[in-house]
Structures are given as structure tokens and as C-alpha cells.
């Protein structure tokens, strides 16, 4: 029996990969199973060395067709390798690609899947996954009835695995992958110069109450003063005021900064679901009854248009 | 092109948290006074399909809803938005439709409809937010799947898709038939139906199928909901105080800087 973690070479062994490995290790130990890592794509030596010290076995699928993510080929590779490892569970991160293939992987392996998982447990030999539902208003525990349990998890919220003294063997998988059928012909990153929102320590986020795209320039200026990243609510993204990659919420990014400053964000549960792991939440809102204040450590009830310019002054003065 | 748009009917996700209750025995949300609405991402999918059809000048859009009798409202609204046909699959009052069962039922309905080029689903629902229907449906139909799409156009004999990723977006070329899931974007905000089209929608006939019409029966369980509860997580907010706005903003700045210094 094994627990499989599925990693993509392009991501390196980043915080998300480490979280997946940590969750996998703890589940494997509880099951008395081996932790098997799959790496799809040509991983560099640093990644292989790091994964070798946390897993019991590593299988790399590095053939040239897998150098970049293509859904049908990555899915086929993951399914073939999993079949040879007889997993009780397969864990993936919650990035776009993992989410795209997870349910299909479960289907091909005769298992069942659950996503956006915040914790994993065993119950009478079955895998149980906790996840937030109803737009963050409720939490459910899902018992996966078929094996393997394929879970995509909120990886960054899971502790990494401790390094072990023994080092795992590394196998290269040679696979027959078939036809891609879909082909990613162009990849474009927004804001490549900025750090990832998921990794930000301070986030300043704007919502519907900003009323237009221009105030985001002020938010950016505020963010620059404290080394923060700018994010937004779904309402602001849907209005086209900022790129969709800025969206925090149930259907956007799941963030966990030390400070989340919500400006003119009412606090719909859909939004709260994306930032409820923040250490400290603060708000600037004109409406004292806005639900966001129920989740805040501190805040100010005032029109953001009056607060932001003054706040910018104060933060700039402190910096000088 | 033949487009099939799968629509889910859900409890209005915008009901305030204080009115939201769950039944710990049935492990379902209590409906109470809340309305049933079409899942927003499904409406984004229908809007994307409608714009695609309008741009190409041809094509047919069939809306499918797998739901109890109440699903008719979702289909009438889809027709009012100008979908061409509506197909209702009655779920026989099954609570907790299991994701695999939903995919098998939709796949059977799609096979019964006949040929299709693109099946569109919402990326996830505003109730259980499972996010698996598209992927499982693609496997059931044996076709490729692309997730998080916000734009579709024709390209050669297939389609060209723009889809959102963590870092930005990608352009994907795909052969048809295939399944795609749709996410929200500033360009696919669902249209409000015209009054005349709402009236017309009630004159159109809907196709209604039962599970036995489709030859679908409950299979082994994919998963079960073991627990459902409302997390208690409220902190008391300290509102900054002071005589003047300037004093209050100073306090706010100080609290922000305290966090920054502790990093």
C-alpha cells in the first residue's frame, strides 16, 4: 500500500509541494504505508534531492512530451504511474493544473476525488477530507468510498514533512502517452515581476465599494509602502477593474498572509472563504454593519476615500 | 456547432450568513425562505455559449438541468436568455447527488440528445463547490477536458480557448468534441433576459426525462457526506478611536506597521 503525491517539475519543490509532501507523509505513517512521489516533467537536481529526502520512493516522468503541462498527457502519465503503485490516496496541490486533472485521475483509477481540502483523516480505514462548502458558510467532512482517494488540498496550509536520514531510490518512468488532443499554444503571466499572492505576507485588497479601477492605483501605492501585494474581491474583478488573477475568494486565490487589509470589501462569505486563513484581518469600510468587521482584529468605520490618502501619508512618514 | 450547457440549480448563495442553517441529520442546508437560483458559473457558461453563437451566426445551444421539478425555472430562464432548447432530467428527489452519479446522468442525457461539439459546465457550484462535474463528464464521454475557460472561438476544425491559470492565462487549441468548464470574467457576466423573451420562454416546450428513460440507476457510492456544520469563527474587532479622523488613521497606520515590524 502507498500514498502517492503528484508534483510538477515546473513548480520545483515549492511551499505547495512541501505541504503536499507533509500531508502525504502524515497520512502514510498513519496507514503504515510508503510515501511515493511522482514528478512529472524534467525536474532539476535540487528538486529531486529535496523530494528524495522526504519520500520513500520517487518516480520521474521526464520524457520530452512532458516538458510543459498538457492536460491529456500529464493525466495519462499520472494515471499510468499510479496504477503501478496501488495507492490508497493520491494527493495534489490546488493549482490550476492539479485541479484540472484530479477528478479525471480518480475516474481512471476507479477511485473518488474531493477538492480544496483543509484536513485529512482516517475513519474505519476510509479517507475523510474536510472542506469548506456553501461559499464558506459551512464545513463538510467527506468520506471517500472508493480507493484511491484523490485529493487536491490547500497545500500551503499544510506543514512540510520532516527530512529523513534515508534517501529514496529514484526511478525514471518510460510511458506511452497517446495523443494530446488539446494543446496549450500560448502561456501568459500577468504581473510576472511581483511575488505570488499566495506567498504574500501582507495583502491589501479592494472591493466593490471602491467604485472603479482608479482607486486600485492608490491601493498599489499603499502596498508599495509596506511591501504588500494587492488583491481584489470577485465583484471588483468581474467589473474589470483589475485582472482575474487578483481575485481572492472561494473561487479565486486562497491566501494566508500575516495581515489582510480589506478596503471597501463588504465581506460576503464567498470572499471570506479565500482569506479566512489570514493571521490578522483589518478593514476600512464605511458600513459599520459590514460582515467583514466580524472577522477583523482591527478596523475603521469611514469612507476609504478619506482614509487612504491620510494612511498613505502616515505610512510614508514612518518609512522616512 | 452544437453546444450543450449544463446548468445546476442551487440554494441562493447570497442569503446572509445569519439566515443560513444546516440540518445535521440530512447533512443538507435548510432551504428556509431562500430562493432557488441558477448557479452563477453555469450562467457564465450559458452567456459564453450565447456570445459564441452570436459571433458565429450559427449553432444550437441546448441547456440541460439535472434537478427536481423546480429545475424547470432554471431552464425557463435559460430559454429566456435565448438558449434554443431545454432538457430537464428529473433526479427523483435524490438528495446529495453524488458527483459521479451526476456525471453519468449528464453523459447519458448528452448521448440521448445525440451529436455535440462542446459541452460547457460551470467551474464549480455555489453550494457544494465540488468542481468535478466537467472532469468526470469528460471521462464518461471519453473526450478531452479543459478547465477554467472564459472565452471560446472557432479555430480550423476545432476550437481555440482562453483559460485562466494561477499566473495569468493560456490559449488552448482543442479538437472537438470536448468538455470545458467556464469561469467568470468581465466579458461573460450573464445577460438579463428581455421581458418579451421571458414571456416567450413559457410557450416553449421542454424535454423531460427520468433516470429510467436514460437507463441510469444508482451505482456504488463515490463519496458520502459524513459531517456538515457551521464553523464558529468570529473575532471581536477593535475599531480605532480618536477625536479626529487624523488620530484614528494614525492608530490604524500604527497597527499596520506593528504587523510589518513583526515579520
Structural class of chain B, please? alpha/beta
- Element-level helix/strand string of chain A: EHEHEHEHEEEEEEEHEHEHEEH
What is the name of the CATH class of the largest domain in chain B? Alpha Beta
Question: What name goes with the CATH superfamily of the largest domain in chain B?
Answer: HUPs
Largest interface, chains and sizes:
A-B, 95 and 84 residues
Instruction: Return the CATH class of the largest domain in chain A.
Output: Alpha Beta
Please, what is the oligomeric state? heterodimer
Quick summary:
The complex is a heterodimer of chains A (320) and B (263). Chain A has 320 residues and is an alpha/beta fold. Helix content of chain A is 29%, strand content 29%.
Explain how this protein is built.
The complex is a heterodimer of chains A (320) and B (263). Chain A has 320 residues and is of the alpha/beta class. Helix content of chain A is 29%, strand content 29%. Chain A folds into two domains: 2-172, 3-Layer(aba) Sandwich (Rossmann fold), CATH 3.40.50; 197-319, Rossmann fold. Chain A is built from eight helices and 15 strands. In chain A, β5 (112-123) and β6 (126-133) form a beta hairpin. The longest helix of chain A is centred in the N-terminal third of the chain and has 17 residues, at 15-31. The model of chain A has no long low-confidence stretch (mean pLDDT 93). Helices cover 29% and strands 30% of the residues of chain B. Chains A and B meet through α4, β5, β6, β7 and β10 of A and α4, β9, β11, β14 and β15 of B.
Amino acid at each position: 500500500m502507498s500514498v502517492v503525491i503528484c508534483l510538477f517539475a515546473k513548480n520545483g519543490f515549492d511551499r505547495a509541494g512541501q505541504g503536499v509532501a507533509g500531508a502525504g507523509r502524515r497520512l502514510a505513517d498513519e496507514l503504515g504505508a510508503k510515501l511515493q512521489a511522482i514528478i512529472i516533467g524534467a525536474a532539476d537536481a535540487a528538486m529531486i534531492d529535496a523530494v528524495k529526502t522526504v519520500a520513500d520512493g520517487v518516480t520521474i516522468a521526464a520524457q520530452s512530451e512532458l516538458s510543459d503541462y498538457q492536460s491529456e498527457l500529464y493525466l495519462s502519465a499520472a494515471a499510468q504511474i499510479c496504477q503501478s503503485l496501488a495507492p490508497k490516496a493520491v494527493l495534489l496541490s490546488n493549482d490550476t493544473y492539479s485541479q484540472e486533472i484530479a477528478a479525471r485521475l480518480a475516474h481512471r483509477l476507479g477511485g473518488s476525488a474531493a477538492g480544496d481540502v483543509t484536513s485529512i483523516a482516517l475513519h474505519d480505514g476510509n479517507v475523510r477530507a474536510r472542506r469548506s462548502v456553501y461559499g464558506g458558510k459551512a464545513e463538510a467532512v467527506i468520506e471517500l468510498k472508493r480507493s484511491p482517494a484523490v485529493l487536491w488540498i490547500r497545500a500551503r496550509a499544510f506543514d512540510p514533512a520532516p527530512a529523513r536520514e534515508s534517501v529514496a531510490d529514484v526511478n525514471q518512468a518510460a510511458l506511452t502517452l497517446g495523443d494530446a488532443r488539446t494543446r496549450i499554444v500560448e502561456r501568459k503571466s500577468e504581473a510576472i515581476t511581483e511575488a505570488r499572492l499566495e506567498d504574500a505576507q501582507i495583502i491589501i485588497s479592494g472591493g466593490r465599494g471602491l467604485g472603479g479601477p482608479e482607486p486600485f492605483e492608490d491601493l498599489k501605492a499603499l502596498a508599495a509602502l509596506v511591501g504588500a501585494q494587492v488583491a481584489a474581491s470577485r465583484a471588483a474583478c468581474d467589473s474589470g477593474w483589475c485582472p482575474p488573477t487578483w481575485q481572492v475568494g472561494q473561487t479565486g486565490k486562497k491566501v494566508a498572509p500575516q495581515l489582510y487589509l480589506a478596503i471597501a470589501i463588504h465581506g460576503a462569505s464567498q470572499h471570506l472563504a479565500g482569506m479566512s486563513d489570514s493571521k490578522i484581518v483589518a478593514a476600512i469600510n464605511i458600513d459599520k454593519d459590514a460582515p467583514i468587521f466580524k472577522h477583523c482584529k482591527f478596523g475603521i468605520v469611514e469612507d476609504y476615500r478619506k482614509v487612504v490618502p491620510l494612511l498613505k501619508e502616515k505610512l510614508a512618514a514612518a518609512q522616512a | 456547432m452544437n453546444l450543450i450547457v449544463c446548468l445546476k440549480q442551487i440554494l441562493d448563495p447570497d442569503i446572509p450568513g445569519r439566515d443560513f442553517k444546516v440540518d445535521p441529520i440530512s447533512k443538507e442546508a435548510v432551504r428556509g425562505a431562500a430562493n432557488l437560483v441558477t448557479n452563477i458559473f453555469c450562467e457564465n457558461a450559458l452567456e459564453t455559449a450565447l456570445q459564441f453563437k452570436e459571433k458565429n451566426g450559427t449553432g444550437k445551444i441546448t441547456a440541460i438541468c439535472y434537478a427536481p421539478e423546480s429545475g424547470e425555472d432554471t431552464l425557463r430562464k435559460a430559454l429566456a436568455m435565448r438558449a434554443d432548447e431545454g432538457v430537464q432530467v428529473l433526479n427523483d428527489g435524490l438528495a446529495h447527488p453524488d458527483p459521479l452519479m451526476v456525471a453519468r446522468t449528464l453523459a447519458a442525457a448528452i448521448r440521448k440528445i445525440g451529436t455535440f461539439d462542446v459541452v460547457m459546465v460551470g467551474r464549480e457550484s455555489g453550494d457544494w463547490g465540488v468542481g468535478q462535474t466537467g472532469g468526470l463528464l469528460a471521462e464518461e464521454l471519453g473526450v478531452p477536458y479543459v478547465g477554467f475557460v472564459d472565452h471560446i472561438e472557432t479555430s480550423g476544425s476545432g476550437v481555440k480557448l482562453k483559460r485562466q491559470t494561477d499566473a495569468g492565462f493560456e490559449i488552448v487549441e482543442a479538437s472537438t468534441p470536448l468538455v470545458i468548464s467556464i469561469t467568470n470574467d468581465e466579458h461573460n457576466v450573464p445577460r438579463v433576459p428581455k421581458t418579451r423573451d421571458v414571456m416567450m420562454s413559457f410557450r416553449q416546450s421542454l424535454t423531460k426525462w427520468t433516470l429510467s428513460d436514460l437507463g441510469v440507476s444508482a451505482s456504488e457510492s463515490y463519496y458520502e457526506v459524513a459531517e456538515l456544520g457551521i464553523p464558529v469563527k468570529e473575532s471581536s474587532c477593535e475599531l480605532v478611536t480618536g477625536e479626529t479622523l487624523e488620530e484614528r488613521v494614525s492608530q490604524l497606520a500604527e497597527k499596520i506597521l506593528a504587523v510589518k515590524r513583526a515579520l
